[in-house]
Design a protein that fits this description.
The chain has helices spanning 2-6, 17-30, 41-53, 63-79, 103-112, 131-142; strands at residues 92-95, 100-102, 127-129. A hairpin with a 4-residue loop joins strand 1 (92-95) and strand 2 (100-102). The model is unreliable at 57-68 (pLDDT under 50). It is flat. Strands 2-1-3 form a 3-stranded antiparallel beta sheet. It starts with a helix and ends with a helix. The chain contains 6 helices and 3 strands; from the N terminus they run H-H-H-H-E-E-H-E-H. It holds the Pfam family U-box. GO terms for molecular function: ubiquitin-protein transferase activity. This is U-box domain-containing protein.
Length: 144
């Protein structure tokens, strides 16, 4: 099973935070709303085997801070990303379903389907610029 695939070394169960984050991010990829964007079973198995075979990093006093920053970055990136493209948005818009999308991706979606990509409920094509999100993205990336 999964536990045997990942937890087969001495000290099994004593995972570093960074390794847990990588497995968590893979799990999040597996439950994406768009089925076509999910990794296949063979890819998942290959990536899990790579996690298992990776040598553990040396522990340092800076590790918890770094992993916390990585987790915070991942959470922030997910809030700034379009649920259709999974990329940080350039032109965020709010659709009638209340979700924010990258304009070109939601427009493409609505040309072929009159339903929300998030809820699968009927939805019109009215879009409103999400200036707050655009400001957050601009602020985030101007500081880098």
């Amino acid at each position: 099973g999964l536990q045997g695939l990942l937890d087969n070394r001495e000290g099994a169960g004593a995972w570093e935070a960074a390794a847990v984050e990588r497995v968590m991010m893979l799990a999040l990829e597996c439950v994406r709303p768009t089925v076509l964007l999910r990794p296949g079973l063979q890819e998942v198995a290959k990536r899990l085997e790579a996690f298992r075979d990776a040598k553990p990093r040396q522990k340092s006093s800076a590790a918890p801070m770094a992993s916390s920053s990585t987790a915070e970055d991942f959470e922030l990136e997910s809030w700034l990303s379009c649920p259709l493209s999974l990329c940080v948005m350039d032109d965020p818009v709010v659709a009638e379903d209340g979700f924010t999308y990258e304009r070109r991706y939601i427009e493409t979606h609505l040309r072929t389907r009159a339903v929300s990509p998030m809820t699968n409920l009927p939805m019109g094509s009215m879009l409103m610029a999400n200036r707050t999100m655009r400001s957050m993205i601009a602020e985030r990336y101007s500081n880098r």
